[in-house]
Fold this protein.
Amino acid sequence: MIPFPPPPGAPAAARDPRHGPGDLPAVTWGAFESLALFIVGNLAIGQVLVAGIVLVAMGVQPTEDVAGLPTIVATIAADLTFLGVMLLFFRWRAPDWRRRVGIFLDRGRVRDVAFGFVGGLLLYGIVAVVVGAPLLWLFREVLGRQVSQPEQIASNISAGAKVLAVLSAVVIAPITEELYFRGILYRSVRDRRGIALGVLVQALVFGAVHAPAAPWRDVLFLQVLMCFTGAGLALIYERRANLAASVAAHMAFNIIGVIAIFHGA
């Protein structure tokens, strides 16, 4: 079936089969570039090199299994490093990346941020109750009754560590992760292969990277939950065509998570 051409007054996105959410232009990078950026910028430089240097500087060996302030500081350093690598990538690959990714914070797009924040609150309820409860039952039936959701932040840490943990979870991680998973990875697949495949790929990768130190059954359960979370965040970004909306949603999601962890401490 041959599609009819769009009317002369149609938006540019309607005339170009390759475009982003809404009227955003298509990104110029591909999926393999996106994955290479994550491996080099996040895993190699951020998580191994920079985080390792920070741990050693704080008197901790990188091979030690530690929790608390050193781990949180190293995580923040790794995330900020990866954020810097992404900005360098944008400068080299697409100087107009803000327009392509869609980062709008002007007064006329405040509703996008509000929509995202409320969407993040609703997403937490959906993931925790609608998805999480039946999934936990299924995991326990298949893998054993000992399966539980692991904490991504230790609850028995100092007050200073808690402040940094909140800063990391509520501000730094949402910005860094949304810029990569939705702004870079999702768009690299979505703009070429469609929304469904884009949502699936970035959700799987987003879930896979959430692997705290815990029994493998608990980690697998968390990763599946995070796949649903990543899919929801991508759909919020798709709906508003503004990465600020998914950042706000991610912040709201993590705020509830942090409260739930520290409230039980």
Notes: Confidence is low (pLDDT under 50) at residues 1-10, 12-16. The chain is about 70% helix and 0% strand. The chain has one domain: 26-263. The longest helix spans residues 159-193.
